[in-house]
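Project standup — Tuesday

K.O.: blocked on the structure for the chain from last sprint. Re-posting the sequence here as requested.
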Amino acid sequence: MKREPNAHLIAAMTQAQVSNKGLARRMKDAAAQRGISLGTTHIAVQRWRDGSGIRPETAAIMATVLSAKLGRRVSPGDLGFFDHTRASTPEPATYPHTLREALAVLDGLAQERADATTTDRLIVTDADLSSAVLSWMIARPDGIETDRPAQQRVGMRDVRAVRDAAATFMQLDFKYGGGHGHRALRHYFRYEVLPLLSVNYSAKAGTALFGAAAEVSQLLAWTAYDTGNHRLAHGYLTSTLRLSQVIDDRMFGARILGNLSHQANYLGNHAQAIQLARAAVEGAKGRATPRAMANYSAMEARALSNAGDRAAATRAMDESTRHFEQADTAEDPAWLSYFGEAELMGELSHCFRDLKMRREAVDQAQRAVDTTDPRYARSLGFCRMVLAQSQLLNGELEAAVATAGLAVEGGDSLQSSRFQRYVTDFQQEISAHTANPAVAAFNEKVNYAFARLDDDE
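H.V.: unblocked you, prediction finished:
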């Protein structure tokens, strides 16, 4: 499925009478004046004209260049990028009242591109969020409508095929990030998975099918999140939460609440992140395995740590650790297999970093790096960046820069907009040391990596 051409950018370039090569050259010159090495070529410009995404820093340079050519101020939004005018309108945490409504919402979401230009802000009112959480907490399960008259009948073989597809795309997401495979997955979800939910199946097959569909839907949410399309990710998550209600899958529903907490925390909405994580913990009690409860408590700990509540965060971290110690006493669903020791250490290292507990942060982050499978480039990249930030907290500047350099060299992790923010946040933290040769070399490495990323888009 082709991207839609960026009509705003095409129009601005036409009016400015600048070619692809001309714009690329001017952008590199403008970046050089700021001390930035930009590798933009005419090929990258053509891809942006064709509708590809762009990094905010690169879009800002492009806007500056075209403003000079046009003799008036042009913003990235004017060029079809990162239109922040929509951010003033709250995005309700709409919890579909009926299954039919949920399926209609999911079908609409599956028609949207994750790489479409969007703001990185997401405004959800407390009232809308509370309504969604309360609806899930107190709602009765819909139950499966079995043996409906239909030409097609779904069996367990069909369910296994959906789960295998979800597992394959999840491996791609863990390895590459950046919404890799999102377009193919949403096509598969819309045309292969959603239609199956409305045909003929037994209670066993129907229950398994809704569970598998929810797994695909939440993966679509994560890939949209990693691309930076938070509105789309949020829509998938709230609708997937509704799917979990159909079959009374409280453990998976709590996982979705944990994901929503993760997103809210990332966007700085700490109070909402705490509420969502606590709802996951309370909503899953007695219905989830110890490994799952460890995950939910870790999400609560991260939200509390970011909010600066050290006592409550420590309690949540202790709860997460206690649950994880019992992880092997129960059989977990396949979708939870990723949450091993490395993942737990990664979550806890974020907590200690945010609480400014320097030695604990370094120890936990180092353990996370040491235990993360190198095949998962994005996860390893996150762990290394948290270790670098923790080393910086501990006064180890050169060690921190060296660790961050290894993370950037990972390459594949740079496709993730979340990882890019980790890198730029770290650059801001070391900005007082730009005269240090190690810091200067690191900044040059980042500029080169981002320039290559723009050329690869």
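K.O.: great, moving the ticket to review. The radius of gyration is 23 Å. Confidence is low (pLDDT under 50) at residues 83-92.
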